[in-house]
């Protein structure tokens, strides 16, 4: 791959837990207003039953984290909204297995990449060097990516 990858960004689809959504659904959604992307913006999507679909080819710049796409990969899990309509980590056991397997592959492929959640790329409004929940533009991916990486043996950097 010719693109230099120094950031891996995790997302959620912001769909209600248990709702099936696949790579074609996201591709259609991303191709229409308000997104108007050239197809799916994520490079990998994880379905609720542990499916892992490749979306945008890794060689192509993604459309998933404005200002951070040039040198990043976007990985996304289906879910992120609880039955009550509020942000929630809805990852199923099958999603966790698939995400961990792929995360280890990507960590080996891109050993110097930082791992972040989309929410962690929000602006540091109070300029204290930390992105805190009150600064998040969105809750996506509804879990702490750095903590998850450490729990599966990956250094989030």
- How many discrete structural domains? 1
Helical content class: 10-25%
Mean pLDDT: 96
Unreliable spans are: none
Write up what this structure looks like.
21% of the residues lie in helices and 17% in strands. It has a five-stranded mixed beta sheet with strand order 4-3-5-1-7. By secondary structure, the chain is an alpha/beta fold. It has a single domain, classed as 3-Layer(aba) Sandwich (Lysozyme-like), CATH 3.40.80.10. It is built from three helices and seven strands. The radius of gyration is 15 Å and the shape is globular. The longest helix is centred in the middle third of the chain and has 17 residues.
List the topology elements.
Blueprint: E1 7-12, E2 15-16, H1 23-31, E3 44-46, E4 52-54, E5 72-77, E6 80-81, H2 93-109, E7 114-117, H3 145-151
Parallel strand pairs: 1-5, 1-7, 2-6, 3-5
Antiparallel strand pairs: 3-4
Task: Fill in the keyword field for this structure.
157 residues, alpha/beta, Lysozyme-like, five-stranded mixed β-sheet, two-stranded parallel ribbon, 3 helices, 17% strand, globular
Question: Short description, anyone?
Answer:
This protein has 3 helices and 7 strands. It is an alpha/beta fold and 157 residues long.
């Amino acid at each position: 791959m010719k693109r230099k990858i120094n950031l891996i960004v995790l997302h959620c689809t912001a769909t209600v837990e248990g709702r099936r959504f696949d790579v074609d659904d996201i591709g259609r959604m991303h191709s229409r207003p308000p997104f108007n992307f050239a197809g799916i913006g994520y490079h990998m999507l994880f379905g609720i039953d542990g499916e892992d679909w490749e979306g945008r080819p890794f060689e192509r710049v993604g459309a998933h984290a404005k200002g951070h796409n040039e040198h990043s990969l976007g990985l996304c899990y289906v879910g992120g909204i609880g039955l009550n309509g509020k942000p929630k980590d809805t990852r199923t056991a099958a999603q966790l297995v698939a995400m961990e397997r792929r995360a280890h592959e990507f960590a080996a492929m891109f050993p110097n990449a930082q791992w972040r959640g989309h929410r962690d790329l929000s602006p540091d409004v109070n300029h204290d060097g930390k992105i805190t929940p009150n600064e998040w533009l969105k809750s996506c991916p509804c879990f702490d990516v750095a903590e998850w990486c450490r729990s599966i043996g990956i250094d989030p950097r």
